[in-house]
Amino acid sequence: xxxxxxxxxxxxxxxxxxxxxDKSKKAAAKPATETKAPLKKDGTPDKRYKExxxxKAPLKKDGTPDKRYKExxxxxxxxKKDGTPDKRYKExxK
Length: 94
What we know:
Order of helices and strands: H
Distance between the termini: 69 Å
Low-confidence stretches: none
Number of helices: 1
Shape: flat
Helix content: 10-25%
Mean pLDDT: 80
Radius of gyration: 29 Å
């Protein structure tokens, strides 16, 4: 009895979900609107805005810096000529 009840509920759920999608009324595709960045009076891009600035280093798809590249890595603490940490600097006294 329990299996029959679950089967009826599943069948009704699938039937109602299929009917809920009306294929005759497709949403009109919105035209791709280009975001135009602000321009100066002479028509050149205004570099004060983020959209007009060139990326300084490669980014991931979500917009965060990609740490695999040298430009995105945190600066390293000063070291001596032999490569050991220079203890005169606060970063190296840990």
